[in-house]
Amino acid sequence: MRAFSALLRREVHALLVAPYVYLLLGLWYLLNALFFSLLLDYPQVQNDLSLLPQLLFGNGILLWLLLPVFPPLLTLRLLAEEHRLGTLEALLTAPVSDAAVVLAKYLAACLFFLLFWGGVLFLFLLIGGHGAALDAGAVAGGFLGALLCSCLFLAAGLWASSWSGNLVLAAGGGAGLNYALLFLPHFLHDAPGAPGRVAHATSIPLMLESGFAAGLIDSYALAYFAVLSALFLFLTWVRLVSRRWVP
After folding, report:
1. Suppose 83 and one of 47, 128, 165, 208 were both cysteines; which one would form an S-S bond, judging by CB atoms 3.0 to 4.6 Å apart?
2. What is the model's pTM?
């Protein structure tokens, strides 16, 4: 446990001192602030502020365009860059298990991504402090759903990052995988029979918009994000273990 704590602190510190991470954070804040200000100008939103959590935390442009990209850009630092620099082999031969390495890197990324969504949450607190009538349950639920979705995308990005030291492939592969998690169920949503039912049950935008961003915490959605995130972490662990035989 002591070794895991030391490894987690190492990974958090590595993210805190990486300049490009703050470039990502600043770009995320800028794009979110611009989108937030544009939404406030819409008459529909001005007449019904309950739409804001669904548009920012649910089925909106942030989910479809931005969110699949930023987690892999963060996780490429965790494995792909270490592979490229040659420090990953030294880490894997240290007196700490491969599972601890994967979990420490993943938890560090999840903790750091709180800063990303914390900025969006601050915008809600800002307008709420100026008298805007907001549904606190919808805002809190939307924040939780967006964070769980981000953790899933971070796990997928970490798996993509484990395959090589090519940073472009790590970022592009992670983003492509995240887009597939979003778009494949969307394209099959109206398919007849079992494919349509599976697509409906695995639609992330639907879970976020009609569930979390509406103030409803669905146990199925919680389990879906948890199980799928665990699957990608397991695949990352398998990849690290296999590096002992297949570089």
Report:
1. 165
2. 0.90
